[in-house]
Fold this sequence. Notes:
The chain has 184 residues and is mainly β. The protein has one helix at residues 2-20, and strands at residues 51-54, 69-70, 83-93, 96-104, 109-117, 126-133, 139-145, 155-159, 163-172, 174-183.
Amino acid sequence: MIPCALALALVLGALVLAAGCSGTAKGTGGGTPGTQSTPAAGPVTPAQGPVVAADAYPPAEPHEIDPRFVRNTPGYRVDPALFAEVYHDQFTLNYNSIGLLVTVDRAPLVVDFSVTPGSRDPVYSFFIITVRDGDSREVIGQEGYGRTFSTDSPKRLVFTSPGRYHLNLYGNLVSGDLSILMKK
Length: 184
């Protein structure tokens, strides 16, 4: 009888020790109890109105089209009297990503981009722009150049609802131009 009780005590003791060795409690940061750990800040460019630098996400897998997204609409008319360019920049990508967070108060959000490939082979020279809901991080739109996307350039994306949008630019052997427009 005693050996069974001893074995049970040893098993329970091992479980308690294993539970205690599982690592630092969430939110304690491993330092002073009750303090939160903060991630190291990366380089961030100054805010430019409603567009700010954000962490880049890995490229998304193909997905269902969200009703807020209108794919590649070169015929979508942007009247300069009604729209303002809130962001414009040139980019160069060599297997890296750039992230932007855009806050849209007055829809629609119009994203124009053009791509210049560094190689004639669209397998090696490609560009993907993935747009996510800025709060839920759900992928709501995606377009690109090369690989599974056409090599047409320039392209235009339109999002018809206000809100926060996370834009992730990813590619290789490409340079390009990105413009973000919103209703005035």
